[in-house]
């Protein structure tokens, strides 16, 4: 009930953050915001990245429970805009500075190591079920004991031997390769990067974070690349590149995106 009152008062005093139909958060004081509803993987990823990197991540003050969902009370980052809103106003110098910043932050995330005994596992930060809008709009999935299991999920359960006929050789080739596991934010879209005066001041929304194949941050960064093609082209030059994997993912995006939302038999029909 206390959280409901805070949100109600915050809406009247400060308005909401983001789209009125799908709020990104609620300011409750001049310096604090609550994101609700959330799930545990977002809290775990947010805290893990905060403790193990120097990325600019809003400080968490406390958590709440209301109507069966988690609420995260965190630092409000003032006088900033999303990269999506601010990119076209930046000079070339500041655009390059932001890309350089972000590439260093991605390198830090990639350097993190999973817990002993789980190095080959695809999972959320805490080892539990994953969440990623690329795989399904709402349903958790996994965890997977290995990358092969994750790839099978991306194919909607289609066996690797049948993949060339159904999805083509690009997907079959990439899904047969070995990969390392890396930590990822998982949704480094331009809407989740906050900037001020030509610098990144916050990276938000860690609900898709976790341990995934090493190429996943690269391919996911292109998932909504039509929003700002110039930014993604510049970023591509600074990240470890996985162009074969991106080509394979684009095949799946085109023919079988979000496999948890529809099984292959339904999709084929």
What descriptors fit this protein?
Aminoglycoside_PTrfase; Kinase-like_dom_sf; 11 strands; alpha+beta; AGP_Transferase; 11 helices; three-stranded antiparallel sheet; 20% strand
Element string (H = helix, E = strand): HEEEHEEEHHEHHHEEEEHHHH
Mean pLDDT: 90
Number of strands: 11
Let me know the largest β-sheet. Answer: 5 strands, antiparallel
How far do the termini sit from each other?
47 Å
Structural class: alpha+beta
- Radius of gyration, taken over Cα atoms and rounded to an integer in Å: 19 Å
- Stretches with pLDDT under 50, minimum 5 residues: 264-269
Describe the strand arrangement of the main beta sheet, using strand numbers.
Answer: 1-2-3-5-4
Compute the number of helices: 11
- What form results from the Cα inertia axes? globular
The helix fraction, in percent, is: 25-40%
Strand content: 15-25%
Please give a structural write-up.
The chain has helices spanning 2-14, 40-52, 83-86, 92-111, 147-154, 163-167, 169-175, 216-221, 229-236, 243-256, 264-268; strands at residues 16-19, 22-29, 32-38, 60-66, 69-75, 81-82, 123-124, 181-184, 193-196, 199-203, 210-213. It contains 11 helices and 11 strands. With 269 residues, it is an alpha+beta fold. Helix 7 packs across helix 10. Strands 1-2-3-5-4 form a 5-stranded antiparallel beta sheet. Strands 6-9-10 form a 3-stranded antiparallel beta sheet. It is globular. The model is unreliable at 264-269 (pLDDT under 50). Residues 178-237 form the Aminoglycoside phosphotransferase domain. Residues 1-18 form the signal peptide. It comes from Extremus antarcticus.
């Amino acid at each position: 009930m206390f959280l409901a009152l805070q949100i109600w008062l915050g809406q009247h005093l400060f308005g909401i953050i983001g789209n009125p139909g799908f709020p990104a958060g609620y300011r409750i004081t001049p310096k604090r915001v609550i994101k609700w509803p959330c799930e545990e993987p977002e809290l775990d990823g947010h805290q893990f990245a905060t403790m193990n990197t120097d990325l600019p991540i809003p400080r968490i003050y406390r958590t709440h429970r209301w109507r069966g969902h988690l609420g995260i009370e965190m630092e409000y980052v003032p006088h900033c805009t999303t990269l999506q809103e601010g990119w076209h106003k930046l000079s070339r110098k500041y655009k390059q500075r932001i890309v350089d910043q972000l590439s260093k932050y991605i390198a830090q995330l990639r350097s993190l190591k999973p817990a002993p005994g789980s190095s080959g596992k695809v999972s959320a930060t805490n080892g539990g079920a994953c969440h990623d809008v690329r795989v399904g709009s709402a349903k958790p999935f996994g965890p997977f004991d290995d990358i092969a299991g994750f790839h099978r999920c991306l194919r909607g359960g289609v066996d690797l031997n049948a993949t060339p006929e159904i999805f083509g050789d690009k997907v079959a080739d990439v899904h047969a390769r070995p990969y390392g596991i890396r930590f990822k934010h998982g949704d480094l879209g331009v809407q989740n990067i906050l900037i001020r005066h030509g610098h990144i001041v916050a990276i938000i929304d860690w609900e898709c974070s976790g341990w995934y194949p090493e190429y996943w941050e690269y391919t996911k960064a292109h998932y909504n690349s039509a929003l700002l093609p110039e930014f993604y082209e510049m970023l591509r030059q600074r990240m470890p590149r996985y162009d074969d994997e991106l080509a394979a993912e684009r095949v799946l995006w085109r023919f079988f995106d979000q496999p948890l939302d529809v099984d292959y038999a339904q999709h084929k029909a």
